[in-house]
Specification:
By secondary structure, the protein is of the alpha+beta class. The chain is 18% helix and 44% strand. The chain is built from 3 helices and 12 strands, in the order H-E-E-E-E-E-E-H-E-E-E-E-H-E-E. The strands form 2 sheets. Strands 4, 5, 6, 7, 8, 9 and 10 form a 7-stranded mixed beta sheet that branches. The longest helix has 23 residues. The protein is globular and about 45 Å long.
Length: 187
């Protein structure tokens, strides 16, 4: 394996071996944002989980586009409040998830129809192999950061408690990075 191949594969191997949380703590995903964060921040509690969403900073600039940042929570994860197809949905960012993952209740809440009579696909999760149904979410917004036509999977409520914001969303951004316990998404 060449050094270049190793450089490309190292982050993927780290995430596969140690899980996305430890991988995110390593800070290997990019450099520190240079733009100043917006002064307006908010701290919100989500009744669907016991953790509190960290301060979220929004930035808007014609030249730089939009960005949103959040701090790592006490368990080492990053959370955002999103709007999916017009409905408020809290998410946990998961760079180890290939696509956005929602449960059946969230799918109903955001108006995504699931064809459970289709064969679906089997996916590997932290809790084992489960049946999932591919869907497309028309729009996911975090503040002014808006992504359309996002590939996702729907799992049963018992298989997934938190909505996971995976790479099918993150790859549509102009960039994202983790520095000093802060995740910044840019568009």
């Amino acid at each position: 394996m060449t050094p270049k191949q190793l450089t490309i594969l190292a982050p993927i191997m780290l995430a596969a071996l140690f899980g996305p949380t430890l991988f995110m703590k390593s800070g290997l995903l990019g450099s520190k944002p240079t733009a100043q964060q917006a002064e307006a921040t908010s701290t919100q509690a989500d009744p669907r989980r016991e953790t509190t969403i960290a301060k979220v900073a929004y930035k808007s600039d014609e030249e730089d586009g939009y960005s949103v940042s959040t701090q790592r929570d006490a368990s080492g994860h990053f959370h955002f409040d999103t709007v999916m197809n017009g409905a408020d949905v809290p998410v946990m960012v998961d760079t180890g998830a290939s696509v956005v993952a929602i449960n059946k209740s969230v799918a109903e809440e955001i108006g995504v129809e699931v064809d459970e009579e289709s064969r679906g696909v089997t996916v590997n999760t932290a809790n084992g192999r489960v049946k999932a149904y591919p869907v497309t979410i028309e729009e996911i917004a975090i503040g002014e950061v808006v992504v359309e036509n996002v590939k996702a999977v729907v799992l049963g409520d018992e298989a997934l408690s938190d909505t996971l914001l995976g790479m099918s969303f993150l790859n549509k951004l102009s960039g994202f990075d983790i520095r000093d316990g802060e995740l910044t998404l840019r568009q």
